[in-house]
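#structure-requests
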Amino acid sequence: MKDTDISPAVRKIVRDREERNFGWTCCIYCGYPYRVEIAHYVPRSRGGKGIPENLVCLCPHCHRHLDNGSDIEYTRSIKRRVESYLREQYPDWDKIDLGGRR
């Protein structure tokens, strides 16, 4: 298993975290509750780790925009929300700990 992979145990941690915070598993950006995907804040393509501190639940639409959205403002808005959410969940959260190539 690579550092960027998400284990079944980590998927469960992330889904359970979102369910605790929202009452159900949903996109943390728009609230859409169907076909939720686990998304990396620091993307796999940049070496982002498959750890709860780097992962959130997003709907396919928001996930696609986070990874490679053409609407720059919308993508920035999602990224800001994801970062803010992860900081709320993990007080010592630091982007440096999430992996990634510099």
